[in-house]
Here is the input.
Amino acid sequence: MATVTELLLPVETDLEDLLKDLRVLIGAGHPILQAAAEHLFSAGGKRIRPGIVLLISKALTVDGNLSSRHRRLAEITEMIHTASLVHDDVVDEASTRRGVDTVHSRFDHKVAVLAGDFLFAQASWHLANLNNLDVVKLLSRVIMDLAEGEVKQGLYKYDATQTLDSYLEKSYFKTASLIANSSQAVGVLSDVSDYELSQLYNYGKQLGLAFQVVDDILDFTSSQKELGKPAANDMASGYLTAPALYALEENNRLSILIEREFSSNGDIEEALTIVRNSNAINRTRKLAEQFAKDSYESITWMKDSPYKKALLNLPEYVLGRLY
Amino acid sequence: MATVTELLLPVETDLEDLLKDLRVLIGAGHPILQAAAEHLFSAGGKRIRPGIVLLISKALTVDGNLSSRHRRLAEITEMIHTASLVHDDVVDEASTRRGVDTVHSRFDHKVAVLAGDFLFAQASWHLANLNNLDVVKLLSRVIMDLAEGEVKQGLYKYDATQTLDSYLEKSYFKTASLIANSSQAVGVLSDVSDYELSQLYNYGKQLGLAFQVVDDILDFTSSQKELGKPAANDMASGYLTAPALYALEENNRLSILIEREFSSNGDIEEALTIVRNSNAINRTRKLAEQFAKDSYESITWMKDSPYKKALLNLPEYVLGRLY
Here is the structure.
């Protein structure tokens, strides 16, 4: 089983350049934003989103050479992603993300608002200057979906009556839309056919959904140490994901615990046990497997290359995080 | 001397429709955003920015009829403006704006971040769907300038060595860019000549600068009751504007007070007296008059109409706030 670093090896140098560019772009001329940029774009992050953009870009060329517009698109993708994380952490009052301090806990929420706005603004400026209206539309749709997802997520907090469809819609808005639309945007810049455009979109969409569903399983099955946050942290915060929603179909006791917002002692532990002892994790894993399979099958038409190989391995890598 | 309501009379119904649309657009489906939208887009605001867009739009038509794209542009202008205000208030920790509670003090800073992001996202989505790359570029430049201005403003806090040019640049970023670029964008949608495009830009730029400079004078000359905030509030917060910068040229004592951040008892009152007793207010007024004159002269080429008349009266109205 390859690691993500191994998978992204064909674009490793490009990703390093990209991080360097982003640090300069964001930090220039402002000491506090510079510190925030160092913090956000330091080495060690997985950068899977710009990695996908770069891999698709290279897979669609004849010679594996990247144009400056393809590089810029990868940067824009990472800027939008990072901006939305920084603001989400303010809205969700998260103090750490994957074990690392968030901007608003390391600095304060004012710096986080400023840094996020600055990133969004840079993204929208560079986006306009790619000079392609279709790409502008695809990525502005992403910005809209991210905001919509954050709003929806707040709306469904502790709502035991929400459907699996509304959970998947939220997951699309918050995770899959960026990967789907930026994958399609690569195709627009590379002038591929309409069929291939829709397949690129589908590759990103299904991969993004698989990624989110696997993340939601890990929230229940991993330990605090592995997650960098307490187990079942999402559920405890009121964010109900696929495992909780499936478990609700089997066990009515769970909805009582959720509706009283886990306010009694031991509620969270009891809820965690209910989910773990149900068939929910199994069913959620099947869901992730279906998304990963659909993602894989969407790009079999690409001509063979190390980039295509990495892209085909990504869905399996996403599932592999479960084992 | 006309009031702003009288000046905007030729587009009064259009502005009412616009506010109704914005409340629906932002509030739909989310109770807290709906409350924030009601708060932000309630009657009583001056809506001078979309008013200018609508007046120019009508002045450039043959029959005074607005296209849906011109209306949408006016909405986008107000969305971007409102989003930046909501986030600025978080960054500046302002609890009131013109005497009214800010979103983050009425609700909390999390709602303010979410509402601002949602507005920016809606703006960028509707912008892309105007289907005109030039308009996208003009308005994404605005979003960039607003973020840059907010960053710069923080950077120059309590900096008595900053130049008048850096103050004017900041004022352009934070106030004039939106009016200048949206005025030009109307011209793009209305297909006017390159000369007229640059004149529309200049009209908005000079008007925006006049507006900001007058605001900065009022901060020193008005009472707390008139301002809805304490007099010399900007200076006390470390934001040095034209009157303070001119006064610094005359009186070295002021720089001592600024550099110790008005930390001793009576510092603010002493600084206020220095500025008021200097020639600074007078010089700043002359600056505003020049901007207003330049603005007026930029649109004399328009054919006569009630809309042109209102646009020509706006620079004078801006100066009139001083008397």
